[in-house]
Amino acid sequence: MIFIQNEVFKALADPTRRQILKLLSSGDMSAGDIARCFDMTKPSISHHLGILKAAGLILDERRGQNIIYSLNMTLVQDIIRWFFDFTKNDSEEERS
Amino acid sequence: MIFIQNEVFKALADPTRRQILKLLSSGDMSAGDIARCFDMTKPSISHHLGILKAAGLILDERRGQNIIYSLNMTLVQDIIRWFFDFTKNDSEEERS
DNA sequence: TAGATAATTAGATAAATATCTAAATATCTA
DNA sequence: TAGATATTTAGATATTTATCTAATTATCTA
After folding, report:
1. CATH number of the domain that B31 lies in?
2. Strand D footprint nucleotides (protein C-beta < 7 Å)
3. What's the pTM value of the predicted model, to 2 decimals?
4. What is the dihedral of CA B82, A80, A8, B89, to 10 degrees?
5. pLDDT digits (tens, 9 = 90+) for B1-37
6. Do the domain assignments include residue A1?
7. Residues of chain A contacting residue B80, judged by C-beta atoms under 8 Å apart
């Protein structure tokens, strides 16, 4: 049984953060690029990026003045597996 | 692109609620049966069940004095599809 | 119908969180 | 090195949320 940290689910519970993940699924972006997509201050977006990073959902890399964020596909795959485990019924009476 | 309501992710953000879902993946249970699995008052569990139900993650049916809860597998499958969409890169430069 | 059992609702409270402004840090370039 | 740009950190605040106790609702059965 796969284990996913609580912080991962907490990170996913905010619509802004899920939108950030969607953006990153199309390609890596700098913090500024990401912030420009939202009607929110840069510190607020930075806060969300920090939560996503702490959860391991995104990775960061400084490139000059910019910090480039990318989606951590490995964790996304683990999450899919975690949900997929619900589709395997492990009760006795249901076994054919 | 599949859409999952914000309440679904909020419901998943609590460890007690995820544990309830795990329990229900093995088979339907009454509210009391569920409450007995936790070191928490019945009203607190009832609160969590209400949030899971409002999110559509669980279904309920009264059977005499008991209310039987079950996992809504259809929504679980939709969630899997939602995460799976992240694994399809839709950027131009990455296309082979 | 009275009492017992199962479950929820109401109301209170402490903790967590999303957001903002202001300040700090890091990097580049003229 | 001074100024500009990119980003984060600090600190404050309003809102949300998880939990509890007490009260209410629904059902069964003697």
Report:
1. 1.10.10.10
2. 5-11, 17-23, 26-28
3. 0.94
4. -60
5. 899 999 999 999 999 999 999 999 999 999 999 999 9
6. no
7. 80, 83-84, 87
